[in-house]
From TrEMBL:
<dbReference type="InterPro" id="IPR047347">
    <property type="entry name" value="YvaQ-like_sensor"/>
</dbReference>
<keyword id="KW-0472">Membrane</keyword>
<dbReference type="InterPro" id="IPR003660">
    <property type="entry name" value="HAMP_dom"/>
</dbReference>
<dbReference type="GO" id="GO:0006935">
    <property type="term" value="P:chemotaxis"/>
</dbReference>
<feature type="domain" description="HAMP">
    <location>
        <begin position="199"/>
        <end position="251"/>
    </location>
</feature>
<keyword id="KW-0812">Transmembrane</keyword>
<dbReference type="GO" id="GO:0007165">
    <property type="term" value="P:signal transduction"/>
</dbReference>
<dbReference type="Pfam" id="PF12729">
    <property type="entry name" value="4HB_MCP_1"/>
</dbReference>
<keyword id="KW-0807">Transducer</keyword>
<protein>
    <submittedName>
        <fullName>Chemotaxis protein</fullName>
    </submittedName>
</protein>
<dbReference type="GO" id="GO:0005886">
    <property type="term" value="C:plasma membrane"/>
</dbReference>
<keyword id="KW-1133">Transmembrane helix</keyword>
<feature type="region of interest" description="Disordered">
    <location>
        <begin position="516"/>
        <end position="562"/>
    </location>
</feature>
<dbReference type="Pfam" id="PF00672">
    <property type="entry name" value="HAMP"/>
</dbReference>
<feature type="compositionally biased region" description="Low complexity">
    <location>
        <begin position="520"/>
        <end position="535"/>
    </location>
</feature>
<dbReference type="InterPro" id="IPR004090">
    <property type="entry name" value="Chemotax_Me-accpt_rcpt"/>
</dbReference>
<dbReference type="GO" id="GO:0004888">
    <property type="term" value="F:transmembrane signaling receptor activity"/>
</dbReference>
Amino acid sequence: MSFIAVLALTVCVGVIAVMQLGKVHDMSTEMSTTWMPATRSLLEMKNLVSRYRTQEMQHILSGSYDEMAAYEKAMDETWANLQKNRTTYESLITEPEEREIYPELQKLLNQYAVEHNKIVAISHTQENEQANALIRGKSLQLTREINTMLDKLTEINVAGATRAGQTADGVYSQARLWVLGLLLGSVALGLVLALWIARIVSRPLSEAVKVAQSVAAGDLTSRIEARTTDETGQLLEALKGMNDSLSKIVGEVRMGTDTIATASSQIASGNQDLSSRTEEQASSLEQTAASMEELTSTVKQNADNARQANQLAVSASEVAVKGGSVVSQVVDTMGSINASSKKIVDIIGVIDGIAFQTNILALNAAVEAARAGEQGRGFAVVASEVRSLAQRSAAAAKEIKTLIGDSVEKVEEGSKQVEEAGRTMDEIVGSVKRVTDIMGEITAASQEQTSGIEQINQAITQMDQVTQQNAALVEEASAAAQSLQEQAGSLVQSVSIFKLDANALATRTSFTRLTPIPRPAAAAKPAPKGPAKALPSRREPGGRPAPQLAMAGDAKGDWTEF
């Protein structure tokens, strides 16, 4: 009921707040849809009247008919906007005073339109003095009366907007008082109900806290009685069930220590079997050590052979480098030959041109000789040029001969270098053959290594069989021992906290601790014949995987392998 009362007060606060907000919204809507648009239209009309009159003055002062036409068009647009705003304002009229003033405004606007038509007509005749007299006469008086009417209407709408704002403020103040009053009432009622509820609930909760503290301290002998069926009574009943369940669990845990003692005995037996199998593994390790000694000597011999092979390989590398150098020289020589050949081509081109010119000059000389007859001055000049060209041709031919001789010498030198490269490659082949012989020796040594490795594999196979069994036993024994140790310590520490009822404890079965079987001393291990080296552990392909760790509580049937 208390919560319902608080909820009812909260609902009242919300309803009142919503109602007052609705009134504020109505006032705001009235301002935004009526008063403010009407005021805006009136102010726009006043501005348009002033602009219209300015355009009339500019029409009178215009010096051409084109300017007059432009101003007449602008005045038509201004008058259309004025009529549009007037129509908008007419639809927003709400006050009786506005309805009385608005017809007078319409009448003034109509009269002003008549005077406007007269002014425009006289302005077209360029009689500016008469037009100015009209615009400063009745037209000016009508303009002032129109502005006065617009100011009155604007004041009416501004006053209406002010009244709406004041009404909204009053609604807000009234709503604030209502909401504050109801909130204070809700707080006061909530405090009274909270104190009453706390007094009713605190007593059963105090009893439940005492019971929980007793259980936390390990005392499970508390007697719990639930006197009611409400939430606190259900809490006490749950605490009673928890206390009984904990008492039962602690008794069962104490009985479980017997199972732990039995598992410890089985672990001791498994460790004895593990010790005997370890001795067998030591014998196999001795055989492995002997085989390792033979394998070591063979590996050493292979290492020496490999070293010699490495030296020969280095020598072969040097010879190969030498051959590469020779080949580089051959390439350079061939490059020189190529350059000389290019020069020969150029010189041949020059000779070809000279021959062509010589032919032309000879032809000209023949023509001149035919024309001149006895007077052969032209022929003498041509003959001189022919001799000059002949000399140049002879010099070019001589240069060609020299270059060709040089190319022949370089080709011979390149041939010798190629022969030297061939001999170098023969040396490389010999070195490679020697490397092949040494590799044969290495192969023979590898065969001896294979024989020794086979003996090692046999010994490792025997070791692997025993190692797999031992690994399984060690993993199971380690997991069981660790789990038993952790559980035993945890159980002893946890159970020692709780104090059980004497009658309930008498009904539990007493437990006994089994004495672990003493582990016999391991037999003495024979000394190895030689220094045994550690071998990496391995498993045969297809061998059984490592067994999973056995759970501490699962002690039945897991140790039959011993």
